[in-house]
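Quick entry between incubations.
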Amino acid sequence: MDWIAADWGTTHLQLWEMEADGTVLNTMLSDQGMGVLLPEDYEPTLLGLLRNRLPTDRTTPVIACGMVGARQGWIEAPYAPVPAAPPSAAIAVRPKLRDPRLAVHVLPGMSQASPADVMRGEEVRISGVLAEEPDFDGIVCLPGLHTIWAQISAGEVVSFRTFMTAELVKLLSTQSVLRLSVGQEGWDEAEFQAGLDRGLSTPAALASDAFRLRAEALLDDLPSEAARARLWGLLIGVELAAAKPYWLGQAVRIVGVEDPVKLYSAALAKQGVQATSRDWEAMTLAGLGAARRTLLERA
Amino acid sequence: MDWIAADWGTTHLQLWEMEADGTVLNTMLSDQGMGVLLPEDYEPTLLGLLRNRLPTDRTTPVIACGMVGARQGWIEAPYAPVPAAPPSAAIAVRPKLRDPRLAVHVLPGMSQASPADVMRGEEVRISGVLAEEPDFDGIVCLPGLHTIWAQISAGEVVSFRTFMTAELVKLLSTQSVLRLSVGQEGWDEAEFQAGLDRGLSTPAALASDAFRLRAEALLDDLPSEAARARLWGLLIGVELAAAKPYWLGQAVRIVGVEDPVKLYSAALAKQGVQATSRDWEAMTLAGLGAARRTLLERA
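Done. Structure below.
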């Protein structure tokens, strides 16, 4: 093992044991996210997962991104303001450790002054896209609980914009009156497409179109998978209406896990934009790997 | 006591002991809403609240509205489709009771075929507005967890439209990442007005403007009461953008409790619409009282 890649978010910690050439030796997933940890818990959490796998004859670097660097995380890694290249290890923050076998480098997130916006973790995936395509000029779209659209030019993040789209779908379908009518599984592609059209053309009607799913379930027995697909379509359609400057006539890379990437790819294709998708894990490792290289160059 | 008015919703039951002339003798509020009751629980719940206050020499009518008449309530009172006058006691549904001292009349809600929509309870408040102003021609706006806009003409509900506005505010401010930045108390009128303008002019940006509250809290120390007021402004602004046919150049009556009525009145006033407000309880009793009169006329 040459180094350790860590994606340490609010709800999860994922670790990859890496060789110098980028080969993944081992991966570990834990539910010990920032949300359940105090600052003094982070080092024991790492050591508990890595146990006796750590080399004892040298210090192994851990390159970490995500909420671990938030004010309420392990140690605050202040946001790098855009425009800027995605943060490298040169501005990572290093918590003090008791165990000499580990050296942890926490990468900062990025911020935008106006309109105010922040990200923590997505900038590493953007760095991964740039590691693959150093001359990329265009848009990186990162769907997750929140979707971030980032404008990339000359190796820098020029501007970005966050949408709470998937979190709204989740809240509406599990916590609101719609939970009685919107399923957590199943799909109806025609309803997704109808929702997309409606959201894009009439975004202001969202709070009314959402309730209509409940009314159609009561009056017309709308199936729960149809309601689910239309709700996703509505919310993504409304997002696309506002994010138009981020995709119209642009080269777009979508970085995420399988299902959301499919939804955004389909939604953009409907608008005539052929986005290229990139795997979330691969871009995370490419981005953390790029930070690992800056560390070596500085050494 | 001549009759009993009952507003039986999902989370609460409110009872009013009424004299024939509309005088309120006594009011009772209970948390025994539809959500926690099985069909066999409703009669004991009523009797438990009324105890030995019921006359024994005659049958006292109870006029009830709300989710008590839903499929999952006491007894289903099928929706009356619009266009139609608000349901009267003539089409109320009567559950069988064991106790001869009570006769319960459950009023139906109203439905709309296209776009699909439903209401249960609000139609009684509309009936109350018509009891006060029989010739009213215009819009009744009923803010609550959901806001309903109803078009009234010739004593009938012609069409209506439901928006999940307050439920979205509640979910975003208590269950989403915004809960860390949006307060449950306090107010900033300038932020409310700014949110209104933004929501009305750029409704598609909602999922992004909402996240901006979190980013401004992190980067600019946006106070939680300012975030709360702007979130309300955004959501009501987006609603007004879609509901424009329901208020532009219309006579509007707003029926609700104090705080939401103030917000909607201020939002409409900003658009040049001077809405008249009506008290929620008074309109409930006027509407249930109108149903009581149809009962007497039929007897």
